[in-house]
Design a protein that fits this description.
Shape: globular
Catalytic activity: N(2)-acetyl-L-ornithine + 2-oxoglutarate = N-acetyl-L-glutamate 5-semialdehyde + L-glutamate
Number of domains: 2
Subunit structure: Homodimer.
Number of strands: 17
Pathway: Amino-acid biosynthesis; L-arginine biosynthesis; N(2)-acetyl-L-ornithine from L-glutamate: step 4/4
Strand order of the largest sheet: 4-12-11-10-7-5-6
Radius of gyration: 21 Å
CATH superfamily of the largest domain: Type I PLP-dependent aspartate aminotransferase-like (Major domain)
Distance between the termini: 13 Å
Subcellular location: Cytoplasm
CATH architecture of the largest domain: 3-Layer(aba) Sandwich
CATH topology of the largest domain: Aspartate Aminotransferase, domain 2
Helix content: 25-40%
EC number: 2.6.1.11
Bound molecules: pyridoxal-5'-phosphate
């Protein structure tokens, strides 16, 4: 295979916000994509856990072309039946009763944060409400979600940050309880059921049971960020189903529209506190995006994708585990749920996650790091047994190099 590191295309008009791999993808079909040199790759990134149905899925192609010919965008000044239909679908397949539509994960989390603050002011009578989040979390790049994100590297140079956020270690109930007891006006606890960007770290059952109990006892909202973990990614509709609890509020985005931008904030009836004028989004829940999410949701049901994700996730997990067994000097463990898996490197390994991702690209496999020490695997939910085997084979080629 040709070497990868030719110089990247000149992009003088773009802000250089991204460290890009020197690859230009121009076409996709299913779990495969092709670059401008005609090279084929297995896509185990899927737009970072976003292209749930892979690329150019016939259902999505058909639905999008139908919808764009009929009506793609109208204002929320008017009734949008597809929005109502999608909200009904999502509430039928979750513990939520009400939905607000946005366009991204950060925007969905912003909505959740605003909802929590309105709850604090109007129900609890708090003037300075606090939201507790976890260290190593990731909630987005807008100012409030960047503040909620418990990773100082994302916050540097962007202060003053939004007030009212406090961080605790993840999966540590003692630390959380202590912080709740010390603070006066805790409105909400915001957590990922499984930390994605922070290193594919699953939430622990006992921890989340304890968090739910603590929230119930003290009238604190439990908000879950399901942006990466939701919509079938873990082999359940929502990651929280793996923790035996239900949140009061949760957010969704990434896989929700299968690559068409859409986000959502979902909540129980009693926390549906927004009144007309409180919150809005021009694009939020437009017909095209809602049709995409409905198409993804219906495909998950009709193609039985939840059980497929469980099986393919198990296959991937076991295949990766063979590398841990074979190379305990390089690898610490494999962790994750369903098709959100991470191969965790030892700090003493002779390479970092980014190095392996580079080498895998050269072998025809797209992967994405989750921090310097974790190689993340998030293929489309439609990935086949043969494609998982092929990905493991190409990973093997990259590791043996
Ligand atoms: C990606 C991600 C976000 C941010 O989503 P955007 O659509 O990029 O704004 C928020 N939370 C989690 C858990 C994510 O993985």
């Amino acid at each position: 295979m040709t070497t990868l590191l030719e110089s990247p295309p000149a992009t003088p008009a773009l802000m250089p916000t991204y460290n890009r791999f020197p690859v230009t993808l121009v076409r996709g079909a299913g779990c495969r994509v092709w670059d401008d040199q005609g090279r084929e790759y297995l896509d185990f990134v899927a737009g970072i856990a976003t292209c749930s149905l892979g690329h150019a899925h016939p259902r999505l192609v058909q639905a999008m072309s139908d919808q764009i010919q009929q009506l793609h965008h109208v204002s929320n000044l008017y009734h949008i039946p597809l929005q109502a239909e999608l909200a009904a679908f999502l509430t039928r397949h979750s513990g939520a009763d009400r939905v607000f539509f946005a366009n991204s994960g950060a925007e969905a989390n912003e909505g959740a944060i605003k909802l929590a603050r309105k709850y604090a002011h109007t129900v609890k009578g708090y003037e300075q409400p606090v939201i507790i989040t976890a260290q190593a979390s990731f909630h987005g790049r807008t100012l409030a979600t960047l503040t909620a994100t418990g990773q100082p590297k994302y916050q540097k140079h962007f202060d003053p940050l939004v007030p009212g956020f406090v961080y605790v270690p993840y999966n540590d109930l003692t630390a959380l309880t202590k912080t709740v007891l010390e603070l006066e006006q805790v409105a909400a606890i915001l957590l990922e059921p499984i930390q994605g960007e922070g290193g594919v770290r699953p939430g622990e059952w006992d921890y989340f049971q304890g968090v739910r109990r603590l929230c119930d006892e003290r009238g604190i909202l439990l908000i879950l960020d399901e942006v990466q973990s939701g919509m079938g990614r873990t082999g359940r509709w929502w990651g929280y189903e793996r923790l035996g609890i239900e949140p009061d509020i949760f957010s969704s985005a990434k896989g929700l529209g299968g690559g068409i931008p859409i986000g959502a904030v979902l909540c129980k009836e009693q926390y549906s506190l927004f009144q007309p004028g409180d919150h809005a989004s021009t694009y939020g829940g437009n017909p095209l995006a809602c049709r995409a999410a409905l198409t993804v949701g219906q495909a998950i049901l009709e193609l039985d994708l939840l059980s497929q994700v469980q099986q393919r996730g198990e296959q991937l997990h076991q295949g990766l585990n063979e590398w841990v067994t074979a190379h305990p000097d390089w690898f610490q463990e494999v962790r994750g749920w369903g098709l959100l898996q991470g191969l965790v490197l030892r700090p003493s390994a002779p390479f970092q996650a980014g190095d392996i991702v580079q080498r895998a690209i050269a072998k025809g496999l797209l992967l994405v790091p989750a921090g310097p020490q974790v190689i993340r695997f998030v293929p489309p939910l439609i990935v086949t047994e043969g494609e998982v085997n092929l990905a493991l084979e190409r990973l093997g080629d990259a590791l043996k190099q």
